[in-house]
Write a structure and sequence with these properties.
Elements (H helix, E strand, L loop, with lengths): L4 E7 L10 H4 L8 E7 L7 H22 L8 E5 L8 E6 L6 E4 L8 E4 L8 H15 L4 E5 L9 H16 L13 H4 L2 E7 L2 H26 L7 H9 L7 E5 L1 H7 L2 H7 L7 E8 L10 E11 L19 H15 L5 E11 L11 E3 L5 E3 L7 H16 L4 E5 L4 H6 L4 E5 L2 H14 L3 E3 L4 H4 L9 E2 L7 H10 L7 E5 L22 H11 L3
Parallel strand pairs: 1-8, 2-4, 2-7, 7-8, 11-12, 11-15, 14-18, 15-19, 16-17
Antiparallel strand pairs: 3-4, 5-6, 9-10, 10-12, 13-14, 16-19
Helix pairs in contact: 3-4, 4-6, 6-10, 9-11, 10-16, 11-15, 13-16
Length: 539
């Protein structure tokens, strides 16, 4: 899909806006009205550069409008005004942003002087807060907008360039939509035109440098979202593999294993899931060698579950809501988006991305409850429920990655269990790990990006729940602790490698709308894991 948003950075000190109607006079009569976006703190405090730009008359208008609309500058709230005659804009949009610590008078007791009680300062905004702010602005502007954003916040960011880049990231993520299969689209020029947004900052060169990385991350998130949003009749395993191979344009090495290769490797667990489908299964291995000579000899590895459609197989799912199972490959989509982001921003790290791609269908060749399959590791698995299929796919791919590449660590992502929704809803993804240090780094990256994780336990007592009478293990431990027993199953295939499992069933698809995401497919995990890499593993 062609980009619908054009973002530029301009020097705040030399900001100049065309007078209203100037673009039309230049012959661009369809151009949307120019909007000026500014930020106000909780006390309606404006930045010094903003005050200089808009002048006293506009400030007075804002205060009158705020009083009428009961706008108090609450973070992410908005005051939408017709710009005063003296301001070179048609529309003035005031957005609430984090402010500085303030103080308030305390009503004095009789006979005692008035005292001032400091308000407890809010925690400093994170980069995720600036991305969310960009999403808020993008939502208020709508598509086809022509706007100038005065990035002069009432509470100065610790790193203004990084904050501006994250703000631009939020604009890009909010702008995304998936409408390629709509044959009838709105005729409204504002909806179909490209938005042109100028972000005025103190140091545009520094902001552009930071934004280059955030644009790569945005592209990776959008790729992941689009993969999740695709229908399963279009995005079956072979097509998914073909799309992953397009990363070769960025310098990524891409290897595709077909069923013959997987049979030779002994991937009986993965192949068993796909044997009921007319679509052949695939494993895709992507490698970005960004560390260069002298880098760490051990790569880091990310593994994704890619069930392009999950009927449940013989243990078929209820019909209601089954259409959502086109998104059961959100883990694989994240891995592809992550590798794209790392390659596009030339990350100085050696990374493996591996995805197992299958379609789980009923049919005369489908595996049955009670079947026993042999995994690549040599361990045997009794199939109790054919709808507990994702762990079978991941088990073989995890073993393959640790055996072939000997990675420093592995992280897998999967829309694995409905149980994680019961436990955590859609606010957090479940985190399981055998390595406390890796777990802490993931939690920190989640907090920084707003893609939040919550750690859940692993323990031998849970492991006993998947022991089988007839094989080395069974593929489900029953109703209780479903997310945990799924993670215990996966742990049997990591062979002692430091490892983390992210259950993204509640966050990877059908996720709630947010400031930065209005899409059914969220692209969850790309920003999280890119941040993990950039903060901890780049040379």
């Amino acid at each position: 899909m062609p980009p619908s948003l054009k973002i530029q950075f301009a020097p705040l000190g030399k900001l100049a806006l065309a007078a209203p109607g100037a673009s039309a006079a230049a012959g661009d009569s369809a151009k949307a009205a120019q909007t000026l976006v500014i930020f106000a703190g909780p006390d309606l405090k404006l930045g010094a550069a903003t005050l200089k730009l808009i002048g006293a008359e506009a400030e007075a208008l804002i205060r009158r409008g705020a009083a009428t609309a009961k706008f108090r500058g609450k973070v992410s709230s908005a005051l939408d005004l017709i710009a005063p005659a003296g301001l070179a804009a048609d529309r003035l949009l005031v957005i609430g942003a984090p402010g500085e610590e303030t103080a308030e008078p305390k009503t004095p007791e009789a006979g005692k002087p008035e005292t001032v009680v400091p308000i407890k300062p809010a925690a400093p905004p994170t980069l995720a807060d600036y991305a969310n702010l960009g999403g808020v602005v993008g939502g208020k502007l709508g598509r086809g907008a022509a706007a100038t954003v005065v990035f002069d916040l009432p509470r100065a960011p610790e790193n203004a360039a990084a904050a501006a880049a994250e703000f631009a990231l939020g604009l890009q993520l909010r702008d995304y939509r998936f409408d390629r299969y709509k044959t009838k689209k709105k005729d409204d020029a504002d909806e179909n035109g490209a938005s042109e947004i100028v972000i005025a900052v103190a140091d545009p060169e520094a902001a552009r440098e930071k934004a280059a990385g955030s644009e790569a991350v945005a592209a990776g998130v959008i790729t992941a979202r689009s993969l999740v949003n695709e229908p399963a009749n279009i995005l079956f395993p072979e097509e998914f593999a073909a799309r992953a191979k397009e990363l070769e344009k960025l310098g990524v090495e891409v290897e595709i294993l077909d069923e013959t290769a997987m049979q030779a490797l002994g991937m009986g667990a993965l192949l068993g899931v796909g044997q009921g489908s007319s679509r052949q299964s695939r494993v895709v291995v992507m490698r970005w060698r960004g560390a260069g000579e002298g880098g760490d000899s051990k790569p880091i590895a990310f593994v994704g579950k890619g069930v392009t459609f999950d009927t449940g197989g013989i243990s078929i799912k209820p019909a209601a809501g089954m259409e959502d199972m086109k998104g059961d490959m959100a883990g694989a989509a994240c891995v592809v988006g992550l590798i794209e982001a790392l390659a596009a921003r030339k990350a100085k790290v050696d990374v493996i991305g591996a995805i197992g791609l299958v379609e789980n269908m009923p049919g005369p060749d489908a595996q049955r409850p009670g079947d026993i399959v042999k995994s690549m590791s040599g361990q045997t698995i009794e199939i109790i429920n054919t709808d507990a299929e994702g762990r079978l796919v991941l088990g073989d791919v995890l073993w393959y990655v640790q055996d072939r590449f000997k990675p420093k660590f592995m992280i897998d992502l999967a829309t694995l269990t409905g149980a994680v929704l019961v436990a955590l809803g859609q606010e957090h993804a479940g985190l399981f790990t055998n390595d406390d240090d890796l777990g802490e780094k993931l939690l920190a990256a989640g907090k920084a990006t707003g893609e939040k994780l919550w750690r859940l336990p692993l323990a031998p007592a849970y492991d006993k729940m998947i022991d089988s009478k007839f094989a080395d293990m069974k593929n489900t431990g029953g109703r209780h602790a479903g997310s945990i027993t799924a993670a215990q199953f996966l742990q049997r295939f990591v062979n002692g490698t430091p490892w983390a499992h992210l259950d993204i069933a509640g966050t990877g698809m059908s996720s709630p709308s947010s400031d930065v995401n209005q899409s059914w497919g969220s692209g969850f995990g790309v920003r999280l894991l890119d941040r993990l890499v950039s903060d901890n593993y780049e040379g």
